[in-house]
Design a protein that fits this description.
116 residues; mainly alpha; elongated
Length: 116
């Protein structure tokens, strides 16, 4: 089940973190405060945790990979649920659900041990 190498996961982390940060403007919901701030926070958290993760693309390498993957799963679940949790589902929900599903999938399908 865990077939994504940690190095590939690292690339996905940085790309998806940037996508999370850009998504309010890319998908046209930057004028909706709650909808906008959820992916901005998720993108910042994704990039921050990536920088500190002990894997091939980590800069500081203090956060264990298993913890990083758990954070990805939690972040993905929050993104998926956020339109209903924060009350903006009538305005927009699909970008949050898709980005959250991606984070969930990456967290669940990535190998737990980096190849340093």
């Amino acid at each position: 089940m865990r077939f994504i190498p940690t190095k590939v996961h690292g690339i996905l982390d940085y790309v998806s973190g940037g996508l999370f940060l850009a998504s309010p403007w890319l998908f046209g919901f930057a004028d909706k405060p709650a909808a906008k701030w959820v992916p901005l926070a998720a993108g910042g958290a994704a990039l921050g945790s990536s920088l500190f993760t002990d894997y091939e693309l980590g800069a500081v390498r203090k956060l264990p990979m298993t913890t990083h993957l758990s954070l990805d799963v939690a972040e993905g679940a929050l993104l998926v649920a956020s339109p209903w949790l924060f009350g903006f589902a009538r305005k927009t929900y699909l970008p949050h659900v898709l980005l959250g599903a991606f984070a969930l999938g990456a967290g669940l399908m990535t190998q737990k041990t980096p190849k340093h």
